[in-house]
């Protein structure tokens, strides 16, 4: 367990899958209420999160009382969006914040935690993507130091719909790893 500014980080375990689904669905409902067409409630089930735990890392953030306040997935490759790449980056996915329990700035703390995990793995870049139709999220990531390095206009969702994503990257070579 890692404590970071009052947020406790731990790797998710199989028993956390239902909690992750609930967190995802809550984030999806919030997006829809904001007019953001990105995630759909019910789109990611326990099988998705168990697979991500097996293939990479899923991290849960909790407050001092143990209430889950966020989570994210960390992948070591993302050929679907980025194509075949040299192993120089970690890929952050499904950055989720529990809006009722999360302290201010929790999303940024989750992102910084992911960046430190990537740097500790000896990799020089953090990468992520965001749907092209979400300028608010794009601005959020740019404010966190990410820069646009490309666009993938035809990513296909599990339900068959096609959408565009903006590819973003942050160099971590100056990041202090603690």
Number of strands: 8
Q: What is the end-to-end distance?
A: 14 Å
Average pLDDT taken over every residue: 89
Strand order in the sheet with the most strands? 1-2-3-4-5-6-8-7
Q: Overall 3D geometry?
A: globular
Q: Structural class, from helix and strand content?
A: alpha+beta
**Secondary structure tally, helices:** 5
Q: Please, could you describe this protein's structure?
A:
- By secondary structure, the chain is α+β, with helices and mostly antiparallel strands.
- 31% of the residues lie in helices and 33% in strands.
- The protein has 5 helices and 8 strands; from the N terminus they run ββααββαβαβαββ.
- An 8-stranded mixed β-sheet has the order 1-2-3-4-5-6-8-7, sandwiched between helices.
- It is globular.
Structure keywords:
178 residues; alpha+beta; 8-stranded mixed sheet; 8 strands; 31% helix
What are the SSEs and their pairings?
Blueprint: E1 2-4, E2 7-11, H1 17-33, H2 46-55, E3 57-62, E4 68-75, H3 79-82, E5 89-97, H4 106-120, E6 125-131, H5 135-143, E7 147-156, E8 162-171
Parallel strand pairs: 5-6
Antiparallel strand pairs: 1-2, 2-3, 3-4, 4-5, 6-8, 7-8
Give a nutshell description of this structure.
The chain has 178 residues and is an alpha+beta fold.
């Amino acid at each position: 367990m890692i404590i970071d500014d009052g947020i406790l980080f731990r790797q998710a375990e199989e028993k956390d899958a239902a909690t992750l689904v609930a967190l995802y669905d809550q984030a999806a409902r919030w997006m829809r209420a904001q007019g953001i067409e990105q995630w759909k409630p019910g789109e990611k089930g326990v099988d998705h999160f168990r697979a991500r735990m097996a293939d990479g890392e899923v991290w849960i953030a909790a407050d001092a009382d143990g209430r889950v306040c966020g989570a994210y997935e960390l992948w070591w490759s993302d050929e679907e969006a980025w194509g075949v790449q040299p192993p120089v980056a970690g890929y952050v996915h499904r950055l989720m914040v529990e809006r009722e329990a999360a302290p201010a700035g929790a999303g940024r703390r989750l992102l910084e935690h992911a960046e430190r995990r990537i740097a500790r793995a000896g990799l020089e870049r953090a990468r992520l993507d965001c749907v092209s139709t979400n300028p608010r999220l794009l601005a959020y990531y740019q404010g966190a130091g990410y820069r646009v390095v490309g666009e993938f206009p035809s990513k296909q969702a599990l339900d068959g719909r096609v959408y565009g994503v903006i590819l973003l990257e942050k160099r971590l070579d100056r990041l202090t790893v603690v």
